[in-house]
């Protein structure tokens, strides 16, 4: 599940930002006549790819701080960010807060 929980959403965002940065650098190749414009697009694309690395680093820091819980549906260990989050394997909504607990569970 690509967008199942908050960590996977953050990692997917960083992955998309990498491709945007590469696309910006590739657009810079269209301006071969103007070396200044081409260099500007190359530097801008590089900074975008660098920002993606910062997002990946941030996701790693959040992942290390996340609480590990066992999903009641698929019985796999998953990480929980915030009060509620989804299982990264099956998409089941999980919570540590008892007020979010559904009736019958």
Which helices and strands occur, and which strands form pairs?
Elements: H1 6-28, H2 35-65, E1 67-70, E2 77-80, E3 84-86, E4 93-95
Antiparallel strand pairs: 1-2, 3-4
Helix pairs in contact: 1-2
Biggest sheet, open or closed, and with what strands and sense?
A: 2 strands, antiparallel
Count the domains.
Answer: 1
Structural class per helix/strand content?
Answer: alpha+beta
User: Strands of the largest sheet, in order across it?
Assistant: 1-2
Q: Would you list the SSEs in sequence order as H and E? A: HHEEEE
Spans where pLDDT lies below 50 across 5 or more residues: none
- By DSSP, the count of extended strands is 4
Rounded average pLDDT: 87
Rg calculated over all Cα atoms:
20 Å
Q: What is the helix fraction of residues, given as a range?
A: 40-55%
Tally the helices: what do you get?
2
Distance between the termini: 25 Å
Give an account of the 3D structure.
With 105 residues, the protein is an alpha+beta fold. It has one domain (6-100). Helices cover 51% and strands 13% of the residues. The protein is built from two helices and four strands. The protein has helices spanning 6-28, 35-65; strands at residues 67-70, 77-80, 84-86, 93-95. Strands 1-2 form a two-stranded antiparallel ribbon. A two-stranded antiparallel ribbon has the order 3-4. The radius of gyration is 20 Å and the shape is rod-shaped. The chain starts with 5 loop residues before the first helix and ends in a 10-residue tail after the last strand. The model has no long low-confidence stretch (mean pLDDT 87). InterPro entries: UPF0295.
């Amino acid at each position: 599940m690509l967008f199942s929980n908050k960590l996977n959403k953050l990692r997917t965002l960083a992955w998309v930002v990498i491709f945007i940065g590469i696309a910006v650098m590739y657009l810079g190749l269209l301006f071969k006549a103007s070396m200044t414009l081409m260099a500007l697009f190359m530097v801008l694309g590089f900074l975008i790819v660098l920002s993606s690395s910062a997002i990946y680093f941030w996701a790693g820091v959040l992942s290390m701080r996340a609480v590990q819980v066992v999903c009641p549906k698929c019985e796999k260990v998953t990480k929980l960010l915030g009060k509620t989050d989804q299982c990264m394997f099956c998409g089941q909504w999980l919570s540590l807060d008892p007020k979010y607990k559904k009736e019958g569970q």
